Amino acid sequence: MLIREGIVEGETHISEKGRKFVMVRRDNLSDVKQQLFGLIDMTTAGRLLGLQKRRMRQVLNLIFVNVKKMGPSNNAPWSISRMEINQLLELSVHLEMVAIPDEDCISFGHILRYWTWTNRDIAAFIASVKSEEIKPVNLLDSVAGIAAWNFRETELKNWKIKTQNGLGEWLTIAQAARVLGTKEQVAYELVRLGLLKAEVMPYQMKRGTRVRRTEIDNFNEHYIFATKLAEEYGCSPRKLINNLSDLGLLPISGPMVDGARQVVYKYEQAREALDKLSGPLQSERLLMNGALLLPQT
After folding, report:
1. What CA–CA distance (Å, rounded) separates 28 from 8?
2. Does residue 4 or residue 258 have the better pLDDT?
3. Which of 13, 18, 24, 155 could serve as a FRET partner for 41 with CA atoms 20 to 30 Å apart?
């Protein structure tokens, strides 16, 4: 990549067995290390990615993790990890270059210039490309960096609709809450407590936190709300919590544990404890006025 960009000099050689390899001068190794692992300014990063300076400034904190000012002044330029830039560029190094996009394709550069996507849309889209939820089909040879990505127009529109409706790979906290069947504030608490894994796209939580759909499945596999269990067993949440407490099972999160709004149990532990009521003691369990009662001793 650095050789193709003209930053590092390299020579192509062919071995006796016909294998092609590239060699660089030993005295260029320090330059290679700096370019691969060092910091570059925002203007250079934008040029490599094919993004205009204004757009680069708008999405800077939404896309990149290792971003910082190059000085104490507010007017100091931003610096970005070259490695993060490389990771984006490497997503499409295997694709062929085309002079003209296919009739049903649109370049990312065209989207950035003409489509009315918000900066959050753009950041979410790049994240979806990184996760391979949507893939570019080839590259436009007249454009640099990720702006050269070409996509099927139908796939672009489907991605946008799915994302708006909370059906895409990445969900906002509000969308994740709806999928979980709880309130948005509870979903934020789950993220804060580490029970629901999320990624912050920028650093302010309510502006850019995203949850992968697979993390919703992971939460449902390992945890369960007391309200959901109570609904299944036809009793009040308070009664169910008391019953589980009598069985020696305490929640891992809740008002009396960590101040969270919803009571949460580990899924397998809760199921095993309730099986003691629905198994050997099932004949003695009483359901009275919607309340689940332990058998009298």
Report:
1. 7
2. 258
3. 24
Tokens representing 196?
A: 């629901």
**What separation in angstroms does the CA of 158 have from each of 134, 136, 155, 162, 167?**
10, 14, 5, 6, 10
At residue 291's C-alpha, the angle toward residues 227 and 263, to 5°, is 25
Is this model's pTM higher than 0.70 or not?
Answer: no
Phi, psi of 191 (to 5 degrees): -65, -45
pLDDT of 289 over the 50 cut: no
